[in-house]
Design goal:
Elements lengths: L11 H4 E17 L7 H10 L5 E5 L3 H12 L5 E5 L2 H9 L5 E5 H10 L2 E6 L24 E9 L4 H13 L1
Parallel strand pairs: 2-3, 2-4
Antiparallel strand pairs: 1-4, 1-5, 1-6
Length: 174
């Protein structure tokens, strides 16, 4: 949207109509195993006790950037945001000890969680994720925070309501 790119030719909110939701991929919050924390609450308490000491890896130009910064702000965490072009670069920096916070895709972090080099602090949302069923959600840990990537099919705003209903019915049934 225009939060990341000015003067878009297409204004999504004003130009598109939702047809059907396709899916949701929750995000995960991770920290290096060298940090003395195992839960979200321990992480929050530790970072609050050490304001400005740690770095947060954030992926630029996408919604996860806003999600990560909002999480830090809502929880009163003073961390230096370090921008990355993608999750793999951020995770590589975490493994080198350069950042102590990353929020993003489970697929980017899973191998390092399994190896024990990265600690999964929580899945953002209300349901555990099948790829990492041992990782509790933020809500299970008493932290009211949800997030992730939502996928859906959109059409032109002037698409007739009957057409939207027909497409929705077909796609939901398939």
């Amino acid at each position: 949207s225009d939060l990341f790119t000015k003067n878009l030719a297409l204004q999504p909110v004003q130009s598109l109509a939702p047809i059907v939701g396709i899916g949701h991929s929750p995000h995960i919050l991770v920290a290096p195993a060298t940090l003395p924390v195992k839960t979200m609450k321990e992480f929050i308490a530790h970072v609050k006790a050490n304001p400005g000491k740690y770095n947060a890896g954030v992926v630029t130009n996408n919604a996860v950037l806003l999600e990560a910064l909002l999480f830090l702000k809502q929880n009163g965490l003073e961390m230096q945001p370090i921008p990355y072009n993608g999750g793999l670069a951020a995770v590589t920096s975490m493994l080198r000890g350069e950042i102590q916070f990353y929020m993003g895709s489970v697929s980017v972090t899973k191998a390092h969680i399994d190896s024990g080099r990265i600690v999964a602090l929580g899945i953002l949302g209300s349901e555990r994720f099948p790829l990492v069923p041992q990782v509790p959600t933020t809500l299970e840990q008493g932290i009211d925070y949800d997030g992730g990537a939502y996928y859906g099919l959109l059409g032109p705003l002037n698409l007739p309501a009957g057409m939207i209903a027909h497409l929705n019915k077909i796609l939901v049934a398939s």
